[in-house]
Hints:
By secondary structure, the chain is α+β, with helices and mostly antiparallel strands. Helices cover 17% and strands 30% of the residues.
Amino acid sequence: MSEEKQDPFQNPPPRRVGVHALITRGTHLLVVSRPYSVAVSRWGLPGGSAAANELPRRALCRHLDERLTLRASAGRILVIDHVPEQPGLHHEGTNYVYEVLLPDDAEPTVTKSGRFGEARWVERAEVSNYVVDHSLRRIEQSLLASETGLFAELLLGVPLHSNRATTPAA
């Protein structure tokens, strides 16, 4: 019995679109705890998933407002990180990391409905005490892209190009 090949346009595979914010203040970086996440790092960048037909940058602004009471606009895309499926753990996903600038007096407040445990400003040198695995690599590459003005395409936080970050497309 031969297997019929599925038409990817009629029955597309599940793919999560993740959106994350790189928010810095001086030498500090905003990270959030995710009590629901055991498959990956419990700490990471604030964000969430885009809904069907929702633009990633709009999804990020929605999540920052709903989960952290932050009214902010998504800036430029720093990295796009592809995460392959891990059966039993999660579907594949494409994650967009945007640079987000906040006014100096803006402070995140975790909401009860936001699914985050807490928000914390962490020294960049201390991020590895909170974030692990590909989430840490994604943050490191996002910081590099922010500092250099370049863009990086990643696979599990590892650059796909040998020159790490690349110049943005025109």
